[in-house]
Write a structure and sequence with these properties.
6-stranded mixed beta sheet, alpha+beta
């Protein structure tokens, strides 16, 4: 190939931004996700969520996806007032049951909180990775919980 052909795809403009335009950020994140979907042949990601309301107000929720027989928990949140009363554990348990119904064998959750990592350990999650000082003083914890062992693979 010619020298001109090798330089065809060079960047014509570069910029470092604190806040990229929303459409540019969306294009990048969607591009990475789409490439991941192409590379992860056989993946059939399905969104999953459990929301807890009290008097029509959202007080807790969990959001994630099921794919490759695994529940991936992206976000688990409890409003400040009801924290410590088991509502987060209940939301997580409901997500796990729904994931089992979808054929999942295990669940994966990540946290930057040592306190929540201990809580997840108490409810059956096992630490598979930790990264000290992941963000400032925070340690990233990656935990997995076995949901079932019957060998079904329909998630």
């Amino acid at each position: 190939s010619s020298a001109a052909g090798r330089h065809e795809h060079r960047m014509t403009s570069r910029s470092i931004l604190e806040t990229p335009r929303e459409r540019d950020a969306t294009l990048i994140t969607e591009g990475v996700t789409q490439l991941g979907r192409v590379l992860a042949m056989g993946g059939n990601a399905k969104s999953i969520a459990c929301l807890a309301h009290k008097s029509e107000h959202l007080v807790a929720g969990g959001i994630g996806r099921t794919e490759f027989c695994r529940l991936f928990i992206s976000y688990l949140w409890v409003a400040e007032a009801p924290r410590g009363h088991g509502i987060g554990t209940e939301v997580l348990a409901r997500l796990e049951r729904a994931a089992i119904d979808r054929g999942c064998n295990d669940a994966l959750i990540e946290t930057l909180s040592d306190q929540y990592a201990r809580l997840y350990s108490h409810i059956g999650y096992m630490s598979v990775a930790t990264i000290s000082n992941y963000v400032g003083p925070f340690t990233k914890h990656v935990l997995i919980k076995q949901l079932r062992c019957d060998g079904r693979t329909d998630a």
